[in-house]
Amino acid sequence: MSRALKIRFVSIFASSIGFFLPLSALPLFAERQASGAGGVTNGALLVACVVGELLSPWVIARLGIRCTLGVGLLLLGVPLLVLLVAPAVPVMSVVAVARGIGFALVVVAGGALTAALIPASRRGEGLAIVGLVAGVSSLIALPLGVWIAQSWGFAPIFVGGAIIPILAVVTVPLLPKRAADSEQSHGVLHGLRQGRLMRPALVFAASAASAGAVVTYLPLAIGDVAGWVAPAALLVETTMSTVGRMVSGRLGDRVGSSRLLVPGVVLTALGTLMLVVPLGQVVVLVGAAAFGAGFGILQNATLTLMYARADEGQYGVVSAIWNASYDGGMAIGAFALGLIGTITGLAPAFVAIAVLVLAMLAVVRFDRRTPAL
Fold first, then answer.
1. Is the pLDDT reported for residue 217 higher than 80?
2. Which fold, 3-181?
Protein backbone atom coordinates (compact mmCIF):
# COMPACT_ATOMS: atom_id res chain seq x y z
CA MET A 1 0.00 0.00 0.00
CA SER A 2 2.57 2.53 -1.13
CA ARG A 3 1.80 6.20 -1.69
CA ALA A 4 1.95 5.66 -5.44
CA LEU A 5 -0.58 2.82 -5.30
CA LYS A 6 -2.93 4.92 -3.19
CA ILE A 7 -2.70 7.69 -5.79
CA ARG A 8 -3.46 5.11 -8.47
CA PHE A 9 -6.61 4.11 -6.56
CA VAL A 10 -8.04 7.56 -7.37
CA SER A 11 -8.02 6.96 -11.13
CA ILE A 12 -9.23 3.37 -10.65
CA PHE A 13 -12.22 4.62 -8.65
CA ALA A 14 -12.87 7.52 -11.03
CA SER A 15 -12.73 5.43 -14.20
CA SER A 16 -15.00 2.78 -12.72
CA ILE A 17 -17.56 5.40 -11.71
CA GLY A 18 -17.23 7.16 -15.06
CA PHE A 19 -17.82 3.93 -16.97
CA PHE A 20 -20.55 2.25 -14.91
CA LEU A 21 -22.62 5.25 -13.78
CA PRO A 22 -24.01 5.87 -17.30
CA LEU A 23 -23.82 2.22 -18.44
CA SER A 24 -27.41 1.22 -17.71
CA ALA A 25 -28.81 4.74 -17.84
CA LEU A 26 -27.62 5.57 -21.36
CA PRO A 27 -29.68 2.81 -23.02
CA LEU A 28 -32.77 4.21 -21.25
CA PHE A 29 -31.90 7.66 -22.56
CA ALA A 30 -31.34 6.31 -26.08
CA GLU A 31 -34.64 4.41 -26.08
CA ARG A 32 -36.45 7.69 -25.45
CA GLN A 33 -34.98 9.03 -28.67
CA ALA A 34 -35.59 5.92 -30.82
CA SER A 35 -36.78 2.38 -30.21
CA GLY A 36 -33.90 -0.11 -30.21
CA ALA A 37 -31.24 2.58 -29.88
CA GLY A 38 -30.23 1.41 -26.39
CA GLY A 39 -28.79 -1.84 -27.68
CA VAL A 40 -26.93 -0.04 -30.45
CA THR A 41 -25.19 2.40 -28.11
CA ASN A 42 -24.03 -0.21 -25.60
CA GLY A 43 -23.05 -2.55 -28.44
CA ALA A 44 -20.88 0.19 -29.94
CA LEU A 45 -19.38 0.83 -26.50
CA LEU A 46 -18.36 -2.80 -25.96
CA VAL A 47 -16.99 -3.30 -29.48
CA ALA A 48 -14.93 -0.13 -29.10
CA CYS A 49 -13.62 -1.45 -25.77
CA VAL A 50 -12.25 -4.64 -27.32
CA VAL A 51 -10.74 -2.83 -30.32
CA GLY A 52 -9.25 -0.16 -28.04
CA GLU A 53 -7.72 -2.78 -25.75
CA LEU A 54 -5.91 -4.44 -28.64
CA LEU A 55 -4.64 -1.07 -29.93
CA SER A 56 -3.63 0.29 -26.51
CA PRO A 57 -0.04 -1.04 -26.49
CA TRP A 58 0.55 0.77 -29.81
CA VAL A 59 -0.72 4.00 -28.20
CA ILE A 60 1.41 3.43 -25.09
CA ALA A 61 4.50 2.98 -27.25
CA ARG A 62 3.96 6.46 -28.69
CA LEU A 63 2.54 8.46 -25.80
CA GLY A 64 3.89 6.68 -22.73
CA ILE A 65 1.81 4.88 -20.19
CA ARG A 66 0.90 7.85 -17.97
CA CYS A 67 -0.08 10.06 -20.90
CA THR A 68 -2.18 7.20 -22.29
CA LEU A 69 -3.92 6.86 -18.93
CA GLY A 70 -4.68 10.59 -18.89
CA VAL A 71 -6.02 10.57 -22.46
CA GLY A 72 -8.20 7.57 -21.60
CA LEU A 73 -9.71 9.37 -18.59
CA LEU A 74 -10.51 12.40 -20.75
CA LEU A 75 -12.10 10.28 -23.50
CA LEU A 76 -14.15 8.48 -20.87
CA GLY A 77 -15.53 11.73 -19.43
CA VAL A 78 -15.57 14.60 -21.91
CA PRO A 79 -17.86 13.01 -24.58
CA LEU A 80 -20.68 12.68 -22.04
CA LEU A 81 -20.94 16.47 -21.87
CA VAL A 82 -21.78 16.54 -25.58
CA LEU A 83 -25.05 14.76 -24.83
CA LEU A 84 -26.22 17.76 -22.81
CA VAL A 85 -26.48 19.79 -26.01
CA ALA A 86 -26.78 17.11 -28.74
CA PRO A 87 -28.85 14.13 -27.59
CA ALA A 88 -29.40 12.62 -31.06
CA VAL A 89 -28.91 8.86 -31.53
CA PRO A 90 -25.98 9.18 -34.00
CA VAL A 91 -24.22 11.44 -31.51
CA MET A 92 -24.82 8.88 -28.76
CA SER A 93 -23.17 6.21 -30.90
CA VAL A 94 -20.10 8.39 -31.46
CA VAL A 95 -19.98 9.17 -27.75
CA ALA A 96 -20.22 5.45 -26.96
CA VAL A 97 -17.31 4.63 -29.28
CA ALA A 98 -15.15 7.40 -27.81
CA ARG A 99 -15.94 6.27 -24.27
CA GLY A 100 -15.25 2.65 -25.15
CA ILE A 101 -11.81 3.54 -26.51
CA GLY A 102 -11.19 5.75 -23.48
CA PHE A 103 -12.07 3.00 -21.03
CA ALA A 104 -9.87 0.56 -22.96
CA LEU A 105 -6.90 2.93 -22.70
CA VAL A 106 -7.56 3.36 -18.98
CA VAL A 107 -7.77 -0.35 -18.13
CA VAL A 108 -4.79 -1.36 -20.25
CA ALA A 109 -2.42 1.50 -19.40
CA GLY A 110 -3.68 1.70 -15.83
CA GLY A 111 -3.42 -2.06 -15.37
CA ALA A 112 0.16 -2.12 -16.62
CA LEU A 113 1.14 0.79 -14.40
CA THR A 114 -0.58 -0.76 -11.39
CA ALA A 115 1.27 -4.05 -11.87
CA ALA A 116 4.56 -2.13 -11.96
CA LEU A 117 3.72 -0.44 -8.64
CA ILE A 118 3.17 -3.72 -6.80
CA PRO A 119 6.14 -5.83 -5.63
CA ALA A 120 6.32 -9.10 -7.55
CA SER A 121 6.24 -11.12 -4.32
CA ARG A 122 2.89 -9.56 -3.36
CA ARG A 123 1.42 -9.08 -6.83
CA GLY A 124 -1.43 -11.56 -6.43
CA GLU A 125 -2.73 -9.91 -3.28
CA GLY A 126 -2.09 -6.44 -4.66
CA LEU A 127 -4.08 -7.11 -7.83
CA ALA A 128 -6.88 -8.56 -5.71
CA ILE A 129 -7.09 -5.33 -3.69
CA VAL A 130 -7.09 -3.29 -6.90
CA GLY A 131 -9.92 -5.50 -8.19
CA LEU A 132 -11.83 -4.89 -4.98
CA VAL A 133 -11.57 -1.11 -5.41
CA ALA A 134 -12.84 -1.33 -8.98
CA GLY A 135 -15.51 -3.89 -8.10
CA VAL A 136 -16.99 -1.92 -5.21
CA SER A 137 -17.02 1.23 -7.37
CA SER A 138 -18.94 -0.55 -10.13
CA LEU A 139 -21.40 -2.10 -7.67
CA ILE A 140 -22.19 1.40 -6.37
CA ALA A 141 -22.27 3.18 -9.72
CA LEU A 142 -24.34 0.76 -11.81
CA PRO A 143 -27.59 0.86 -9.78
CA LEU A 144 -26.96 4.47 -8.73
CA GLY A 145 -27.03 5.61 -12.35
CA VAL A 146 -30.46 4.10 -12.95
CA TRP A 147 -31.80 5.53 -9.68
CA ILE A 148 -30.51 9.03 -10.49
CA ALA A 149 -32.03 8.84 -13.98
CA GLN A 150 -35.42 7.87 -12.57
CA SER A 151 -35.30 10.46 -9.79
CA TRP A 152 -33.61 13.53 -11.32
CA GLY A 153 -33.17 12.83 -15.00
CA PHE A 154 -30.12 12.16 -17.13
CA ALA A 155 -28.25 15.47 -16.92
CA PRO A 156 -26.75 14.72 -13.45
CA ILE A 157 -25.45 11.40 -14.79
CA PHE A 158 -23.79 13.04 -17.79
CA VAL A 159 -22.21 15.73 -15.63
CA GLY A 160 -21.12 13.40 -12.82
CA GLY A 161 -19.90 10.69 -15.18
CA ALA A 162 -17.80 13.30 -17.00
CA ILE A 163 -16.43 15.38 -14.13
CA ILE A 164 -15.20 12.49 -11.96
CA PRO A 165 -12.76 10.97 -14.49
CA ILE A 166 -11.75 14.42 -15.76
CA LEU A 167 -10.76 15.51 -12.24
CA ALA A 168 -8.77 12.29 -11.76
CA VAL A 169 -6.42 13.37 -14.57
CA VAL A 170 -4.62 15.66 -12.10
CA THR A 171 -3.37 12.58 -10.20
CA VAL A 172 -1.69 11.02 -13.25
CA PRO A 173 1.51 13.18 -13.21
CA LEU A 174 1.93 12.23 -9.53
CA LEU A 175 2.40 8.58 -10.48
CA PRO A 176 6.06 7.50 -10.74
CA LYS A 177 7.71 6.87 -14.09
CA ARG A 178 8.48 3.16 -14.46
CA ALA A 179 9.93 0.86 -17.11
CA ALA A 180 6.35 0.13 -18.18
CA ASP A 181 6.02 3.81 -19.07
CA SER A 182 7.74 3.09 -22.39
CA GLU A 183 6.32 0.02 -24.08
CA GLN A 184 8.71 -2.08 -26.15
CA SER A 185 8.41 -1.91 -29.92
CA HIS A 186 6.65 -5.25 -30.39
CA GLY A 187 3.04 -5.14 -29.30
CA VAL A 188 -0.06 -7.28 -29.10
CA LEU A 189 0.70 -9.42 -32.16
CA HIS A 190 4.02 -10.41 -30.62
CA GLY A 191 2.23 -11.23 -27.36
CA LEU A 192 -0.36 -13.34 -29.18
CA ARG A 193 2.48 -15.53 -30.47
CA GLN A 194 3.81 -16.22 -26.98
CA GLY A 195 2.37 -19.43 -25.59
CA ARG A 196 3.35 -18.58 -22.02
CA LEU A 197 0.95 -15.62 -22.18
CA MET A 198 -1.76 -17.09 -24.37
CA ARG A 199 -2.34 -20.29 -22.39
CA PRO A 200 -3.50 -18.48 -19.22
CA ALA A 201 -5.42 -16.00 -21.43
CA LEU A 202 -7.23 -18.88 -23.17
CA VAL A 203 -8.20 -20.43 -19.84
CA PHE A 204 -9.54 -17.10 -18.65
CA ALA A 205 -11.38 -16.41 -21.92
CA ALA A 206 -13.26 -19.72 -21.54
CA SER A 207 -14.28 -18.83 -17.99
CA ALA A 208 -15.31 -15.34 -19.15
CA ALA A 209 -17.48 -16.96 -21.84
CA SER A 210 -19.22 -18.90 -19.11
CA ALA A 211 -19.65 -15.66 -17.12
CA GLY A 212 -21.18 -13.95 -20.14
CA ALA A 213 -23.67 -16.81 -20.48
CA VAL A 214 -24.54 -16.75 -16.78
CA VAL A 215 -25.15 -13.01 -16.38
CA THR A 216 -27.14 -12.86 -19.62
CA TYR A 217 -29.31 -15.98 -19.50
CA LEU A 218 -29.45 -17.23 -15.92
CA PRO A 219 -32.86 -15.65 -15.15
CA LEU A 220 -34.31 -17.33 -18.27
CA ALA A 221 -32.59 -20.65 -17.62
CA ILE A 222 -34.10 -21.01 -14.13
CA GLY A 223 -37.46 -19.51 -14.98
CA ASP A 224 -39.37 -22.31 -13.22
CA VAL A 225 -37.68 -21.58 -9.89
CA ALA A 226 -38.99 -18.93 -7.46
CA GLY A 227 -38.64 -15.39 -8.77
CA TRP A 228 -36.20 -14.29 -6.07
CA VAL A 229 -33.64 -16.99 -6.90
CA ALA A 230 -32.14 -15.42 -10.04
CA PRO A 231 -31.24 -12.04 -8.47
CA ALA A 232 -30.08 -13.81 -5.30
CA ALA A 233 -27.88 -16.13 -7.37
CA LEU A 234 -26.33 -13.19 -9.26
CA LEU A 235 -25.63 -11.42 -5.95
CA VAL A 236 -24.03 -14.57 -4.52
CA GLU A 237 -21.98 -15.00 -7.69
CA THR A 238 -20.68 -11.42 -7.56
CA THR A 239 -19.85 -11.66 -3.87
CA MET A 240 -18.04 -14.98 -4.19
CA SER A 241 -16.14 -13.70 -7.22
CA THR A 242 -14.70 -10.94 -5.05
CA VAL A 243 -13.89 -13.45 -2.29
CA GLY A 244 -12.28 -15.76 -4.86
CA ARG A 245 -10.03 -12.98 -6.13
CA MET A 246 -8.87 -12.10 -2.63
CA VAL A 247 -8.22 -15.72 -1.63
CA SER A 248 -6.49 -16.39 -4.95
CA GLY A 249 -4.26 -13.36 -4.44
CA ARG A 250 -3.07 -14.41 -1.01
CA LEU A 251 -2.64 -18.09 -1.87
CA GLY A 252 -1.05 -17.36 -5.23
CA ASP A 253 1.71 -15.30 -3.62
CA ARG A 254 2.49 -18.24 -1.35
CA VAL A 255 2.06 -21.37 -3.46
CA GLY A 256 2.18 -19.99 -7.00
CA SER A 257 -0.71 -18.81 -9.16
CA SER A 258 -0.34 -21.71 -11.62
CA ARG A 259 -1.46 -24.15 -8.91
CA LEU A 260 -4.79 -22.34 -8.62
CA LEU A 261 -5.81 -22.81 -12.26
CA VAL A 262 -7.13 -26.36 -11.80
CA PRO A 263 -9.41 -25.59 -8.81
CA GLY A 264 -10.55 -22.41 -10.58
CA VAL A 265 -11.50 -24.30 -13.74
CA VAL A 266 -13.24 -27.11 -11.82
CA LEU A 267 -15.26 -24.73 -9.63
CA THR A 268 -16.30 -22.62 -12.63
CA ALA A 269 -17.44 -25.63 -14.67
CA LEU A 270 -19.17 -27.32 -11.73
CA GLY A 271 -20.94 -24.11 -10.75
CA THR A 272 -22.16 -23.59 -14.31
CA LEU A 273 -23.69 -27.07 -14.33
CA MET A 274 -25.34 -26.65 -10.92
CA LEU A 275 -27.07 -23.47 -12.04
CA VAL A 276 -29.34 -25.34 -14.45
CA VAL A 277 -29.76 -28.83 -12.96
CA PRO A 278 -33.39 -29.19 -11.79
CA LEU A 279 -32.58 -29.89 -8.13
CA GLY A 280 -34.06 -26.84 -6.44
CA GLN A 281 -33.23 -23.41 -5.12
CA VAL A 282 -30.43 -24.40 -2.74
CA VAL A 283 -28.48 -26.14 -5.51
CA VAL A 284 -28.80 -23.04 -7.73
CA LEU A 285 -27.41 -20.81 -4.97
CA VAL A 286 -24.58 -23.26 -4.20
CA GLY A 287 -23.83 -23.39 -7.91
CA ALA A 288 -23.71 -19.59 -8.07
CA ALA A 289 -21.28 -19.57 -5.13
CA ALA A 290 -19.04 -22.20 -6.76
CA PHE A 291 -19.10 -20.44 -10.11
CA GLY A 292 -18.32 -17.05 -8.57
CA ALA A 293 -15.45 -18.45 -6.50
CA GLY A 294 -13.96 -20.26 -9.50
CA PHE A 295 -14.27 -17.25 -11.78
CA GLY A 296 -12.73 -14.98 -9.16
CA ILE A 297 -9.82 -17.38 -8.67
CA LEU A 298 -9.16 -17.49 -12.42
CA GLN A 299 -9.41 -13.71 -12.76
CA ASN A 300 -6.59 -13.17 -10.30
CA ALA A 301 -4.49 -16.25 -11.02
CA THR A 302 -4.35 -15.82 -14.80
CA LEU A 303 -3.52 -12.12 -14.67
CA THR A 304 -0.86 -12.58 -11.98
CA LEU A 305 0.67 -15.47 -13.93
CA MET A 306 0.79 -13.48 -17.17
CA TYR A 307 2.49 -10.51 -15.48
CA ALA A 308 5.02 -12.87 -13.88
CA ARG A 309 5.94 -14.20 -17.33
CA ALA A 310 6.51 -10.78 -18.92
CA ASP A 311 9.09 -8.05 -18.58
CA GLU A 312 7.85 -4.78 -17.10
CA GLY A 313 8.09 -3.15 -20.51
CA GLN A 314 5.51 -5.64 -21.79
CA TYR A 315 2.93 -5.11 -19.02
CA GLY A 316 0.77 -3.11 -21.43
CA VAL A 317 0.61 -6.08 -23.82
CA VAL A 318 -0.32 -8.41 -20.95
CA SER A 319 -3.04 -6.03 -19.78
CA ALA A 320 -4.39 -5.69 -23.33
CA ILE A 321 -4.56 -9.44 -23.96
CA TRP A 322 -6.11 -10.20 -20.58
CA ASN A 323 -8.76 -7.47 -20.86
CA ALA A 324 -9.59 -8.48 -24.44
CA SER A 325 -9.96 -12.08 -23.21
CA TYR A 326 -12.37 -10.82 -20.55
CA ASP A 327 -14.58 -8.64 -22.74
CA GLY A 328 -14.34 -10.83 -25.83
CA GLY A 329 -15.02 -13.99 -23.85
CA MET A 330 -18.06 -12.44 -22.17
CA ALA A 331 -19.49 -11.32 -25.51
CA ILE A 332 -18.81 -14.64 -27.26
CA GLY A 333 -20.28 -16.61 -24.37
CA ALA A 334 -23.51 -14.63 -24.37
CA PHE A 335 -23.82 -14.84 -28.16
CA ALA A 336 -22.91 -18.53 -28.39
CA LEU A 337 -25.24 -19.60 -25.61
CA GLY A 338 -28.11 -17.69 -27.19
CA LEU A 339 -27.38 -19.33 -30.55
CA ILE A 340 -27.04 -22.84 -29.13
CA GLY A 341 -30.01 -22.28 -26.83
CA THR A 342 -32.35 -21.63 -29.75
CA ILE A 343 -31.49 -25.10 -31.07
CA THR A 344 -31.13 -27.22 -27.94
CA GLY A 345 -32.69 -25.16 -25.15
CA LEU A 346 -30.83 -23.21 -22.48
CA ALA A 347 -30.02 -26.08 -20.11
CA PRO A 348 -28.07 -28.13 -22.72
CA ALA A 349 -26.38 -24.91 -23.85
CA PHE A 350 -25.17 -24.29 -20.30
CA VAL A 351 -23.82 -27.85 -20.22
CA ALA A 352 -21.90 -27.18 -23.44
CA ILE A 353 -20.35 -24.04 -21.94
CA ALA A 354 -19.38 -25.99 -18.80
CA VAL A 355 -17.72 -28.69 -20.94
CA LEU A 356 -15.77 -25.97 -22.77
CA VAL A 357 -14.48 -24.62 -19.46
CA LEU A 358 -13.60 -28.12 -18.23
CA ALA A 359 -11.63 -28.73 -21.43
CA MET A 360 -9.24 -26.00 -20.27
CA LEU A 361 -7.74 -28.57 -17.88
CA ALA A 362 -5.87 -29.91 -20.91
CA VAL A 363 -4.47 -26.41 -21.56
CA VAL A 364 -3.43 -26.11 -17.90
CA ARG A 365 -1.71 -29.50 -18.04
CA PHE A 366 0.19 -28.55 -21.18
CA ASP A 367 1.12 -25.22 -19.63
CA ARG A 368 2.69 -26.96 -16.63
CA ARG A 369 4.82 -29.07 -18.95
CA THR A 370 6.04 -26.13 -21.06
CA PRO A 371 6.11 -23.03 -18.81
CA ALA A 372 9.03 -21.41 -20.65
CA LEU A 373 7.56 -21.54 -24.16
1. no
2. Growth Hormone; Chain: A; (1.20.1250)
